[in-house]
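Internal tracking record. Fields below are filled automatically when a chain is submitted to the structure queue. Please do not edit lines marked as system-generated. If the sequence contains nonstandard residues, flag them in the REMARKS field before resubmitting.
Queue: standard
Priority: normal
Entity type: single polypeptide chain
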Amino acid sequence: MLIEPLGHPGREFGAVIHDLRPEELRTEATIAMLNDALARYAVVGVQGMPLDDEAQLALADRFGPIHQSILDASRRRLADRRLNDVGNIDVKGNLKDATAPAYGDSNLLWHSDLTFLARPARITLLSARALPPEPPPTEYVDMRAAWDALPSDRKALLASLEVEHSVLVQRAKCGFTDFTDEERRQAPAVRHALVRQHPVSGRRSLYLSSSASHIVGWPLDQGRTLIEELLEHATQPAFLLSYAWHANDLLLWDNSVTMHRATPFESTEHRRELRWTAVVEAA
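SYSTEM-GENERATED OUTPUT FOLLOWS
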């Protein structure tokens, strides 16, 4: 087994693991290694790791409690609420109509998973089940490095702030507003600290997402201006990692210190199907 850092060698953002066998995912040593790699690199790809749904859920369960989707069953192709589709497949298994606003369109915005819930995602697992001939990459930004690059007076201002997050705010940015009453009930607005400290590495990072609505206690316009400024700062090329997908890749990332986004992909010929599972933070 080999862990290969991605990008600039001194940056320690992103790594790929080679020659890890599927049966090794069941061992305590492998889980410890993956946790250590996530704490160090934040985004970790495991190449050549074909998974079915059962194996993916078993692996996710080793990291903590698994999120269950808030979406109505009519919007879901998969019966198991612990698994979500990411790609261009509709609920009937056909290629999606790319012109209609959809819940998943927000994947194209910079975000951290499930920030609109009181228990957001800690670790996300995303496995490649079907890829087009030229798979679109997934992009990540290092929110630790974004924090480190801020001047000290700016850090002092931000350290005690809270941000209100809402799934309604997030999806409205993509034109999707068709929530059921039950979906709205399951996802009321929540508050999260703008600056967090990682429990393992001890590093501080910004915590932002497209679900961010405003700064708690600030005038609405002023708070939203600050959020936009920080998003622009955090998504600079210096903090960016672009992950190139390969067949049977498994990608894991630490949502507490990263944001990510899908890159556009529309096809009337090729299927892109990724299976998403999220482990939420401890209560």
